[in-house]
């Protein structure tokens, strides 16, 4: 199904997804999509990106900070790293992320925050080593 045949929420979600994660990341995810996960990809594009990330209540920077904190609290390492890389597009700073992870330590536990700090430090080091790399 082409993007033109998709819902308005899907098209809005895809636009925000590309703004936040970058074209290269979204193109890779789309290219890897199969019949098995196509409905899931539509669901996250419409739900996460077209409903939540598209809302006017928070900036992309603020949503980025909240997302990283939640993913860190849940121990979602790959997603934490992906969203840290996306800060290039959202405007969230290292200081923002550090503060978010301190909240993770208080509200979700020191081990979760400790692990997230390791993931974030490695991701920032990778980003600095290869400034051209994208989410």
From TrEMBL:
InterPro entries: 4CMD/NDH-1_regulator, AhpD-like, CMD-like, Decarb_PcaC. This is 4-carboxymuconolactone decarboxylase. It comes from the Bacteria. Residues 39-121 form the Carboxymuconolactone decarboxylase-like domain. GO terms for molecular function: 4-carboxymuconolactone decarboxylase activity. Keywords: Lyase. Gene3D superfamilies: AhpD-like (1.20.1290.10). The gene is pcaC. The keyword Disulfide bond does not apply. It comes from Microvirga arsenatis. Its EC number is 4.1.1.44. NCBIfam families: decarb_PcaC (TIGR02425). Pfam families: CMD.
């Amino acid at each position: 199904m082409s993007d033109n045949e998709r819902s308005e929420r899907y098209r809005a979600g895809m636009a925000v997804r590309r703004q936040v994660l970058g074209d290269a990341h979204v193109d890779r995810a789309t290219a890897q999509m199969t019949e098995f996960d196509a409905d899931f990809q539509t669901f996250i594009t419409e739900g996460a990106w077209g409903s939540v990330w598209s809302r006017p209540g928070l900036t992309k920077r603020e949503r980025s900070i909240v997302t990283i904190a939640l993913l860190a609290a849940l121990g979602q390492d790959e997603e934490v790293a992906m969203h840290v890389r996306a800060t290039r597009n959202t405007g969230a700073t290292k200081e923002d992320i550090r503060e978010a992870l301190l909240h993770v330590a208080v509200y979700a536990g020191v081990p979760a925050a400790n692990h997230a700090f390791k993931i974030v430090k490695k991701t920032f080091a990778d980003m600095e080593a290869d400034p051209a790399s994208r989410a």
